[in-house]
Amino acid sequence: MTRIVHLSDLHFDRVDPVIVEALKAEINDDPPDLVAVSGDLTQRAHRHEFKRGAEFLRSLRAPVLAVPGNHDISYINLVQRFADPFQRWRRYVARDLEPTWYDDTVAVLGLNTARRAALSLDWSNGRFGMRQLVRFRKRCEVLPDHLVRIVVAHHALHPPDAEPDLDIVGRGDVALDVFRELGVNLVLAGHHHRGYMRGHEPVASWTHGLLVVQASTATSTRLRGEPNAYHRLNVEADGHVEIEVRAWDGHRWREVAAREEGAPRPKRLKAPFVQPMVAEVARRANAPAGLG
Ligand SMILES: [Fe+2]
What we know:
This protein is of the alpha/beta class. The chain has one domain (2-286): Metallo-dependent phosphatases (Purple Acid Phosphatase, chain A, domain 2, 4-Layer Sandwich), CATH 3.60.21.10. Helix content is 26%, strand content 21%. The chain has 7 helices and 12 strands. The chain has helices at residues 17-29, 47-58, 78-83, 87-92, 130-141, 172-181, 271-286; strands spanning 2-7, 34-38, 64-67, 100-102, 106-111, 148-153, 184-189, 196-198, 211-214, 229-235, 241-248, 253-256. The strands form 2 sheets. The chain has a 6-stranded mixed β-sheet with strand order 3-2-1-10-11-12. A 6-stranded mixed β-sheet has the order 4-5-6-7-9-8, with helices on one face. Helix 5 (130-141) crosses helix 7 (271-286). Fe (ii) ion (FE2) binds next to loops. Belongs to the cyclic nucleotide phosphodiesterase class-III family. InterPro entries: Calcineurin-like_PHP (IPR004843), CNP_phosphodiesterase-III (IPR050884), Metallo-depent_PP-like (IPR029052). Residues 3-194 form the Calcineurin-like phosphoesterase domain. This is Metallophosphoesterase.
């Protein structure tokens, strides 16, 4: 069994220091095999925020796999945003923006969905790129078949039932189909500071198909009607996953019920566009070198 702690949207330095210390103590009292961080480590991508965030991650008694979120790119320093948006991430957090971690049971694959710009006015929504999905396919194809595959990415793949108009990541439908095709069991994400899970079967004991787990913010004071929360996951070699949601009650971390949402929502992209793009990802991944 592999034990994973899933944290998201920590947002240093807009954090509650009491919650940060209590979180560190909880994790270090019972360290997991891996801490997976699905983006937005900082609030405004300032240097001092990265320093504090990285210091927190280094203080955990477990390996850390982290991917950037939209807040980890500067909105103020536009020269840096466009010239080298992940410079500070690389310097303070990790050189690899899409790391992989594995043991005998799981392979955890990071995907970076934060983008320096978008065609729309809102640059915060993020996107999966076609080349990125091709690379992801190649990463999966060299993995041993028996490993349970887990994706960590910042942006939301599904909106919550109660707020169907919340933005989801660009090409999320394509990515989900690519994930399904490649046997991905779990996606760990964040962004909206809302915690919920959506799969195709009851999630209390998840063994089949693809489950998307969205986390609330672990430590930020910017709450969206939900308490701070994080996840502890136990992943068995047969793909069975148990998920414990732990929320801050104002004094301590406590286990709370997971919020399971209904059937997958209708696709945002028109279905006729999704399958050809999924097929194109497979074609490019299998093309001879230089043609992909
Ligand atoms: Fe975000």
